[in-house]
UniProtKB/TrEMBL annotation, chain A:
Pfam families: CO_deh_flav_C, FAD_binding_5. PANTHER family: XANTHINE DEHYDROGENASE SUBUNIT C-RELATED. InterPro entries: CO_DH_flav_C, CO_DH_flav_C_dom_sf, Diverse_Substr_Oxidored, FAD-bd_PCMH, FAD-bd_PCMH-like_sf, FAD-bd_PCMH_sub1, FAD-bd_PCMH_sub2, Mopterin_DH_FAD-bd. It comes from Herbidospora solisilvae. SUPFAM superfamilies: CO dehydrogenase flavoprotein C-terminal domain-like (SSF55447), FAD-binding/transporter-associated domain-like (SSF56176). Keywords: FAD, Flavoprotein, Oxidoreductase. This is Xanthine dehydrogenase family protein subunit M. Residues 1-177 form the FAD-binding PCMH-type domain. Gene3D superfamilies: 3.30.465.10, CO dehydrogenase flavoprotein, C-terminal domain, Uridine Diphospho-n-acetylenolpyruvylglucosamine Reductase, domain 2. Transmembrane segments: none annotated. GO terms for molecular function: FAD binding; oxidoreductase activity.
UniProtKB/TrEMBL annotation, chain B:
It comes from Herbidospora solisilvae. InterPro entries: Ald_Oxase/Xan_DH_a/b (IPR000674), Ald_Oxase/Xan_DH_a/b_sf (IPR036856), Ald_Oxase/xanthine_DH-like (IPR016208), AldOxase/xan_DH_MoCoBD1 (IPR008274), AldOxase/xan_DH_MoCoBD2 (IPR046867), AldOxase/xan_DH_Mopterin-bd_sf (IPR037165). Keywords: Molybdenum, Oxidoreductase. GO terms for molecular function: iron ion binding; oxidoreductase activity. This is Molybdopterin-dependent oxidoreductase. Residues 20-135 form the Aldehyde oxidase/xanthine dehydrogenase a/b hammerhead domain. It holds the Pfam family MoCoBD_2. Residues 617-637 are annotated as: Disordered. Signal peptide: none annotated. The keyword 4Fe-4S does not apply. NCBIfam families: CODH_aero_grp5.
From TrEMBL, chain C:
Pathway: Alkaloid degradation; nicotine degradation. It comes from the Bacteria. InterPro entries: 2Fe-2S-bd, 2Fe-2S-bd_dom_sf, 2Fe-2S_ferredoxin-like_sf, 2Fe-2S_ferredoxin-type, 2Fe2S_fd_BS, Beta-grasp_dom_sf, Diverse_Oxidoreductases. It holds the Pfam family Fer2_2. Residues 2-78 form the 2Fe-2S ferredoxin-type domain. One of its GO terms (molecular function) is oxidoreductase activity. Signal peptide: none annotated. Keywords: 2Fe-2S, Iron, Iron-sulfur, Metal-binding, Oxidoreductase. This is 2Fe-2S iron-sulfur cluster binding domain-containing protein. Transmembrane segments: none annotated.
Length: 270, 807, 158
């Protein structure tokens, strides 16, 4: 289980990184924390011809309060975001969700933006971004653009990031109302069999579900505000869980309902 | 007063180097060795039609590529069938490198030797093997039903078929007894595959010494002596020209007792051929698909019993999944068949097993080795009888127990060592009392009712087992006291974390009366001790421990004799304390054991001050006797062997309280209690450690771990991401209590302890979940998703009372 | 090939390696510190955990070239000369290891944890070691070892 060879780039600036990525085209891949990419390379399930290592790029590790939320730079490690009072003040759900991401040693190296870009529908941070209606800021040869979460996740491990584009930050908006995230994993720290992040305000309620679709599944349940059992049923109707070796589709659907009710209650009480 | 070390929680002598990062595991050796990787079959069943290496030969750093065609005589024959048995009529083993047909995903086809492992894997990727696909056989019942065959010449995929019968004392066969019994039950049980999964995979490192024409091989093995003989035989080398050493081994749990693994032959062969150091370090994916698994069985059970719950007759039919090959014979189903009886007097017994080939990784012993399945069967049976009769589950067990005054108790079967299944000692009623006290069995119904009032579901389960440990044929020990007063102990079997360096030193220090600091222990190094069997079946402490004790007694006898001469005393009046031989009650009349060692070796040449005392003009021995008395040898050393008439039988009982989430179906163990009897404990701290680790593996097998094969024979979870070995967060605190019923069979009165913890866990957890849910649990492991499905089907069938079978 | 220098256990160590060299292999094979063990090479088991600038990371999920110039502490760097660290001694004292293969990953993880949390509660200890697999001990004595290490550190002072 050793990774295949690749051409290594270690840009010092975002501009150099974008240049290297653009030159590499489809053969290029960004290396940030590497906690999802390197296992795939060690198993030789991924073999990017060129790696653009952004770990030496200055200024990408920042966590900044902005109007209406918090911006997390592409090199901010999960653990740093988790510990960040700035991030917590702007959006407490981020810290709570990060505590469910793998284990501390992985969070020390893995990046929050990397996890979002990896776009695993079983992962917490894509769901959180989707729930909150956040966005990803991408820099490409043609300049910078903000991609709303609703447009960012396009399929399992697929995003609307274009070839040659580098995700430089993610923006988690502050929200009115309470939030919560609950999940059930086989072992503590595993990808969840099902999980639900919820946001409940005075006049809106919605959830984002993990592991029950190709992308994080966001369901608006404002119509069932307060009747969380009914809201959970609405959620169950919207999801398309699949079976794997850990859980049947039926169980996932059931579990998502249970967790949706729990998450909504907790968010409403928060 | 002799040094009290036997029975004390002495700290481990291994740890100083291991916590400092100074352990030497297989891959820590051979910094300059070439690396090996294999092209392994991606298909479960296929005929190899071609191997194309054209793309690979130009890779920089490549040294050699080998296929079966390249192998010489000896290496190209099938690997040995280690334990033949008359019932194994169709035993089959693999080749070192596949010849024509591959029979499971992961079977090695091409061996690549390169400058490092990265390059070796690059080469593997560039080798193209073409296949003609054959129909894969996956799943026990599919295998038996046919028509597809794993081996063309094994009809019905049945490698072995064996029936054993123990008639009722009135002569009736079990099936007749059951037919006439007041009550009968009939059911099916399923257990899935798991695996040993030591944290360190296998590995082999070989050095050929061209000048000396000798081979030194390091292997992460549980049996270096046997690997040595296999290598010598396969490579056609004289045995004295091959040495095999097990360095620090990062866990074994059974998988490393199998030998020779293909790599244990191929790596030394390549090292000699290339005249270079060669090393193979198994990676985790290889370990999943090309080592061994265990556990999978389907059992069909019929039981007849009386109003008290006493079993009158038991009839068990077992389908045992053997995977693609049977290198370790049918030891696992034989152990299931025999150890199924547990601590009980079963009126009459019939057990029949079919050992079945499938296109999956081969099945060989994993800690417990067939016992977890047997205990699952018996303990589920006990629970069902209790449920049927409306009795307490522990009462039904107690009604069937062998009583303390009935030992030795002959179960009238043949055990895995080919010897009678006769239990040597035990006290099962006392164990059960201790267990019930420990877990609070009698208070549980009130606790359960209280929880129910809060909307919580909790349940309690219990499981009992008897474990044949310390199987023969033998082990040996060598003890040498050198003139510096150090005691050098060696034994041939190996260590994989059990703490043998510590417990064997405790034994030697106690026997010889020396400080433990003076004692050093070497295991698993054929340069030091050539005769051994290996470390498996909870046998190391019993076998080598007793052998070392016997060797120490020889040394002590000799030491006392020599000291008696020097002190002009009667040997019978001498004792050794803290390394000093002295007259009992007169410590001043003494001589250091170191000096005795000097005197034991009459010298012509002095090599240091101490040695002068033994030279020819310094000694004052009788001129009428030769310096080395007739029948004696120079040196203060001794060797002895321990070979038991039969196994010694440890036992234990576990209980657990679990909680199931009514909504999510998550299963949590709230409490786990163990009462354990392994005879006299050499080191209670290490015994507890063995129990903790065993239970943790048992919890893995009960709630988390299974090998998920699809219909094509692809292992879907060949990684630690998806094969769910428990972390700390999944393992409950384990509460333990001990009973010490000495074994009458060996000088130290000890029984084995290595495997015990794992054995009854699935049975215990199944019983507890069943109690919490009031749903029959007949299949393990059980996941939340499984429990959800069971709830669903029991709701639809309206069968909350499923437990109460009717005749 | 890349010239990579890391400060390992306080000493600059250099090797010329390909970009794909994993930090675990760099430590073990390029500079000969074999105390860091490799149990899965996909980041799950934690045996290869080392401290990167003081924080535990998976050496098998890190390219050496990517952390050039940084400080790495391995199990070999925990002792103070011949004197084992409190964490190392506690593991030996509490029988917190059996085969010892996973142990280096636990020791590095716990060392960093106790630095930040010198008097942890039981659930914090469990959380701290929850990313490391051990197949031998059943973890009970590992948890005990962590508490014992905290005690030793408190007794002995900084």
């Amino acid at each position: 289980m050793k990774p295949p060879s690749f051409v290594y780039h270690a840009p010092a600036t975002v501009a150099e990184a974008v240049e290297a990525l653009a030159a590499a085209g489809a053969d290029g891949k960004v290396l940030a924390g590497g906690q999802s990419l390197i296992p795939l390379m060690n198993m030789r399930l991924a073999a990017p011809g060129q790696l653009v290592d952004i770990n030496h790029v200055a200024g990408l590790g920042e966590i900044t309060a902005e109007a209406g939320g918090v911006r997390v730079g592409a090199l901010a490690r999960h653990a740093e975001v988790e510990a960040s009072e700035t991030a917590f003040a702007a959006q407490p759900l981020v810290r709570r969700a990060l505590r469910l991401v793998a284990h501390p040693a992985v969070r020390n190296r893995g990046t929050t933006v990397g996890s979002i870009v990896h776009a695993d529908p079983a992962a917490e941070m894509p769901a959180v971004l989707a729930l909150l209606g956040g966005s990803v800021r991408a820099r490409g040869p043609e300049g910078e653009r903000d991609i709303p979460a609703a447009e960012f996740f396009t399929g399992p491990m697929e995003s609307s990031l274009r070839t040659g584009e580098l995700a430089v930050s993610a923006f988690f908006p502050s929200t009115a109302g309470g939030t919560a995230i609950v999940e059930v994993a086989r072992r503590h720290g595993d990808y969840a069999m099902a999980g639900v992040a919820a946001l409940v305000g005075p006049d809106h309620a919605r959830v984002a579900c993990l592991s029950v679709g190709a992308v994080p599944v966001v369901v608006d349940v404002t119509e069932a505000q307060g009747d969380w059992a009914r809201a959970a049923r609405l959620v169950q109707e919207r999801i398309e869980p699949e079976a794997d070796i850990h859980a049947t589709a039926d169980y996932r659907r059931h579990l998502t309902g249970v967790l949706a009710e729990r998450a909504l209650k907790e968010a409403a009480d928060a | 007063m002799t040094t009290r070390l036997f029975g004390e929680p002495v700290r481990r002598r291994e740890d100083a180097r291991l916590v400092a990062g100074n352990g030497r595991y297989l891959d820590d050796l051979g910094a300059d060795a070439l690396a090996v990787a294999f092209v392994r079959s991606p298909h479960a069943h296929a005929r190899i039609t071609g191997i194309d290496v054209d793309d690979a030969v130009d890779v920089e750093g490549l040294v050699a590529i080998y296929t079966w065609e390249d192998l010489p005589e000896g290496v190209r024959e099938p690997l040995p069938l280690l334990i033949p048995h008359p019932a194994l009529t169709h035993g089959r083993t693999a080749y070192c490198l596949a010849k024509d047909v591959v029979r499971h995903v992961g079977e090695p086809i091409v061996m690549v030797v390169a400058a490092d492992r990265y390059i070796a894997e690059d080469v593997c990727e560039r080798i193209h093997v073409s296949y003609e696909f054959l129909k894969p056989v996956v799943g026990l019942e599919n295998a038996v039903e046919g028509p597809n065959l794993v081996h063309d010449d094994v009809p019905g995929n049945v490698g072995a078929h064996m029936v054993q019968e123990v008639a009722h004392r009135d002569g009736r066969a079990a099936r007749d007894v059951i037919a006439a019994a007041p009550h009968t039950l009939e059911f099916r049980l399923d257990i899935e595959r798991s695996a040993c999964m030591p944290m360190e995979g296998k590995g082999v490192y070989a050095r050929w010494d061209a000048d000396d024409r000798s081979l030194r091989v390091y292997s992460s093995t549980q049996t270096s002596t046997s690997v040595r003989m296999a290598i010598a035989a396969k490579l056609g080398l004289p045995l004295p020209k091959v040495e095999v050493i097990a360095p620090d081994v990062g866990g074994g749990f059974g998988v490393k007792i199998v030998h020779p693994w293909p790599e244990e032959i191929l790596v030394p062969w390549a090292a000699r051929l290339l005249n270079r150091e060669v090393k193979w370090t198994e990676d985790r994916r290889e370990h999943f698909v090309s080592s061994a698994h265990e556990r999978a069985q389907v059992q069909h059970v019929k039981v007849g019993f009386d109003d008290e719950g006493r079993v009158l007759g038991l009839d068990v039919e077992i389908l045992h999944d053997h995977g693609a090959y049977t290198p370790y014979g049918i030891i696992v189903p034989i152990i299931t068949s025999t150890q199924l009886l547990g601590p009980y007097k079963i009126g009459s017994y019939r057990v029949e097993f079919f050992s079945v080939y499938t296109n999956t990784v081969q099945v060989t012993p994993y800690r417990g080795a067939g016992r977890p399945q047997g205990v699952f069967c018996m303990e589920r049976t006990m629970d069902k009888i209790a449920q049927y009769l409306g009795k307490d589950r522990t009462d039904v067990r107690a009604a069937n127990f062998i009583q303390p005054d009935e030992f030795p108790y002959d179960q009238q079967m043949i055990f895995q060592d080919g010897r009678p299944l006769i239990y040597d000692s035990g006290d099962y009623p006392a164990s059960l009392r201790k267990l019930k006290d420990l877990i609070g069995w009698d208070d549980f119904p009130a606790m359960q009712a209280e929880a129910a009032a809060e909307g919580r579901r909790i349940g309690i389960g219990v499981g009992c087992y008897v474990e044949g440990t310390g199987v023969g044929p033998y082990e040996g020990g060598h003890v040498q006291v050198t003139s510096d007063g150090r005691v050098h102990v060696s034994t041939g079997l190996t260590s994989q974390g059990q703490g043998h360096e510590t417990v064997f030193a405790q034994i030697a220090a106690t026997e010889l009366g020396v400080p433990i600091e003076k004692v050093s222990v070497v295991t698993g190094d054929t340069r030091r001790f050539g005769y051994a069997v290996g470390t498996f079946a909870s046998r190391a402490a019993v076998m080598s421990g007793n052998a070392i004790a016997l060797a120490c007694r020889k040394v002590k006898e000799k030491a006392l004799r020599i000291a008696a001469d020097a002190l002009e005393a009667d040997p019978a009046d001498l004792e050794i304390t803290d390394g000093m031989v002295h007259v009992v009650g007169a410590p001043s009349a003494s001589i250091p054991l170191a000096t005795v060692a000097v005197l034991s070796n009459p010298l012509r040449y002095a090599f240091d001050e101490e040695a002068k005392r033994a030279t020819q003009f310094a000694t004052s021995g009788s001129m009428d006797r030769p310096p080395v008395a007739e029948g004696q040898e120079p040196g203060l050393e001794g060797k002895d062997y321990y070979s038991p008439v039969r196994s010694t039988f440890a036992s234990g009982m576990h209980a657990a309280i679990v909680e199931t989430d009514p909504d999510t179906a998550e299963i949590r163990i709230l409490r786990y209690a163990v009462v354990h009897d392994c005879g006299k404990m050499i080191n209670p701290m290490l015994v507890e450690g063995q129990i903790h680790g065993g239970v943790a593996q048992g919890v893995g097998g009960a709630l988390y771990e299974k090998m998920a094969y699809d219909e094509y024979g692809q292992l879907l979870n060949a990684s630690f991401m998806d094969f769910l070995m428990p972390y700390v967060t999944e393992i409950p605190r384990i509460e333990t209590d001990h009973l010490e019923t000495p074994s009458p069979l060996n000088p130290l009165g000890i029984k084995g302890a290595g495997e015990a913890g794992v054995i009854p866990v699935s049975a215990v957890i199944a019983g507890a979940v069943e109690d919490a849910e009031k749903i029959v649990i007949d299949r393990m492991p059980i996941s939340p998703s499984d429990l959800y499905a069971l709830r669903d089907s029991s709701r639809t069938s309206g069968a909350v009372s499923l437990l109460r079978n009717t005749q | 090939m890349h010239d990579v220098t890391l400060v390992v256990n306080g000493v600059p160590r250099h090797a010329r390696v390909p970009a794909r060299r994993l930090l675990s292999d760099f430590l073990r094979h390029d500079i000969g510190l074999t105390g860091t063990h490799v149990g899965c090479e996909h980041g799950v088991c934690g045996a290869c955990t080392v401290l990167l600038d003081g924080r535990p990371v998976r050496a098998c999920l890190t390219f050496a070239v990517s952390v050039a110039g940084h400080e790495v502490t391995t199990v070999e760097g925990l002792a103070d000369g011949d004197r084992l660290s409190p964490v190392q001694r506690a593991f030996a004292e509490c029988h917190g290891l059996q085969c010892g293969f996973c142990t280096p990953g636990f020791l590095t993880t716990v060392t960093a944890f106790l630095r930040e949390n010198p008097a942890p509660a039981d659930d914090e200890v469990v959380e701290a070691v929850a990313g490391n697999l051990c197949r031998c001990t059943g973890y009970q004595n590992i948890v005990k070892s962590v508490h014992r290490a905290a005690e030793l550190m408190a007794e002995e002072g900084p």
